[in-house]
Design brief:
The structure is a single chain. By secondary structure, the protein is α/β, with parallel strands linked by helices. Helices cover about 40% and strands about 20% of the residues. It contains 18 helices and 22 strands. The strands form four sheets. It has a seven-stranded mixed beta sheet with strand order 6-5-4-3-2-1-22. A hairpin with a 2-residue loop joins β7 and β8. α4 packs antiparallel against α5 and α16 packs antiparallel against α17. The longest helix has about 35 residues. The chain is globular, with a radius of gyration of 24 Å.
Length: about 550
């Protein structure tokens, strides 16, 4: 068995890892490189494998740096399945079509310039048609369902807590009658964050592929970040300015809405002042993504699910406005009332945010607030690092607005969170591969892991390939009491899920509990668990639909 790292191996974008076992070749992610011209040029290079030979793609989540080259993969010959969670599948539709639209529009602009200069025309990286072809290959599955992707490989998705639908993948590979387990972290979220559940701890793996975006950084507490954001909003609007927040349309925007909802609806000392300040989400994609969040409430954390079951919508509040049309977006920059504008993209590389920066960066009354990771070479990183002059749409703009960076809102686990996740493995994996991080971040995290756990992680650099020797220092299986405890825990997990379903499922509970009381195989437990996942999703979505119907009738 071999693994080849084909992206997110030097930096944090372009996530793509090729796993080869016998005749089977699968990809873990197929993301787009982001962060300036040098990174963008990597997207046009040949894949370091033949796309037509790839059997399937196992996708961790819907952020473009993890899924953004799927249309290119299909354009160049891939015809297999794309496995992802059902929530990721919903988001993937808007993410890939929007990305294709941006590529088409940027190519039109480049070709107009090329024609005037007498240069050759260029093609977009991929088109909306390519994106639609990739979407036709998507095969959605639920968390905790075990799926056989070929006779020698099976997968389970676990909640990564990063964005809606994000997954930690457990992958079992059988080769020469020996089975190895690979765990791919995808992007890990922070514990205790609103809306989504905490990242799942995995207990056992032979090989771990792990992200290290913030491998050498510690985030501030979210509570202090929310308080700081409210402070910035109040101080900025009091002096007549706007607060502009570049935000990823999926994940960060919904978390901001959730936190602002709680603050706007609470009886705090600033209630009257906040009632006059409107919050605009100016991104068609973010608007659609928020609707998708509402439809996937089955994967929310308990606190958010309780809000929904009580009839409250945590992703709405009185002063929240969504804009879709270009005219609505343009009007925001001619509206003199102090306001908050949340707009994509989060790194300021494309989208409506660049127009808002053009109209707001020059004014010292305004504030620009960053709430997510800013990749090297991006406009967002330059602004955080103190650049004083930027060029937007051919015009030089002086940076006079206040620039704030609130890392407490990051959707990525920080060093403490990453270490806690890795430390929960009960036995030492054969190898730990560190990816999806800048060089210093990976090396610093590897040093920490070595000092505290005595592990020696591999700091992956470039498109490197490794042989995974399935005969090397095998991890012994749990025996006796340890094995029995693991089985009991698995059965208890099934019982817990059964008990959490809110409709009258008395007969199913009775039948399933009878089954788990006796001797039962792993295969049967997985079958029961898969059925429960489907029921759980249907139940919470029914509650959401009832709430929305009640709200609709109240408004009539």
């Amino acid at each position: 068995m071999k693994i080849k790292f084909c992206g997110a191996s030097t930096g944090v974008t372009g996530s793509c890892h090729l796993l080869t076992s016998g005749e089977h070749k699968i990809l873990l992610d197929c993301g787009q490189f982001q962060g300036g011209k040098a990174q963008d040029a990597l997207n046009y290079e040949r894949f370091p494998f033949e796309p037509s030979e790839i059997e399937c793609v196992v996708l961790s989540h819907a952020h473009i740096d993890h899924c953004g080259r799927l249309p290119l993969l299909t354009k160049r010959g891939f015809e297999g399945k794309i496995y992802c969670t059902d929530a990721t599948a919903d988001l993937l539709s808007i993410m890939l079509k929007d990305s294709a639209y941006i590529h088409e529009k940027e190519t039109e602009w480049k070709n107009r310039k090329a024609e005037r200069a007498g240069r050759n025309q260029v093609e977009p990286l991929y088109t909306i048609e390519d994106a639609e072809k990739a979407l036709s290959l998507v095969s959605p599955i639920l968390y905790d369902q075990q799926i056989e992707i070929n006779p020698n490989m099976k997968i389970v998705f676990n909640d990564a807590g990063h964005i809606l639908g994000s997954a930690i993948t457990e992958l079992w590979v059988t080769e020469d009658d020996k089975e190895s387990k690979i765990v791919f972290s995808g992007d890990l979220g922070m514990e205790g964050r609103p809306i989504l559940r905490d990242p799942t701890y995995i207990k056992k793996a032979d090989y771990v592929i792990m992200e290290t975006t913030y491998g050498n950084r510690i985030h501030k507490e979210l509570g202090s970040g929310v308080e700081k954001l409210i402070e910035i909003i109040l101080n900025t609007t009091r002096r007549g300015g706007n607060v502009v927040i570049p935000s990823f349309a999926v994940g960060r925007t919904q978390e901001l809405i959730y936190e602002l909802n709680r603050f706007y609806d609470s009886n705090n000392e600033f209630r009257k002042e906040l009632d006059k300040i409107f919050v605009y989400v100016d991104s068609p994609m973010a608007t659609t993504a928020t609707e998708i969040f509402r439809r996937n409430a089955q994967v929310f954390d308990e606190e958010t699910r309780e809000y929904i079951l009580k009839g409250d919508n945590p992703l709405e509040f009185k002063n929240l406005k969504f804009t879709r049309s270009s005219k609505e977006s343009q009007d925001l920059n001619f509206n003199k009332e102090p306001k908050v504008i949340i707009s994509a993209s989060g790194m300021c590389e494309a989208g409506r945010i660049r127009h808002h920066l053009k109209h707001n960066l020059w004014n010292p009354k305004n504030s620009i607030v960053f709430v997510g990771y800013q990749g090297q070479g991006t406009l967002g990183r330059s602004l955080i690092e103190g650049i004083k002059m930027v060029t937007l749409f051919g015009e030089e703009i002086q940076v006079n607005a206040e620039i704030h960076n609130l890392e407490g809102f990051s959707g990525h686990a920080d060093q403490n969170g990453l270490f806690a996740w890795l430390a929960h493995f009960q036995q030492k994996p054969k190898e730990i591969f560190l990816v999806h991080g800048e060089e210093d971040s990976k090396k610093d995290f590897a040093k920490l892991v070595n000092e505290k756990l005595s592990y020696e992680p591999v700091v992956v650099m470039g498109n490197s390939e490794f042989d995974l020797d399935m005969n090397k220092s095998e991890i012994t299986n749990m025996e006796g009491a340890s094995y029995q405890a693991a089985e009991e825990e698995k059965i208890q997990k099934v019982r817990n899920k059964l008990s959490s379903i809110h409709l009258d499922l008395e007969q199913i509970l009775y039948s399933a509990n009878l089954a788990v009381e006796g001797s039962i195989s792993d295969k049967k437990i997985n079958t029961i668990n898969n059925i429960i996942q489907e029921l759980e999703k249907s139940t919470i979505n029914l509650a959401t639909a009832v709430n929305e119907n009640d709200e609709h009738r109240e408004n009539e």
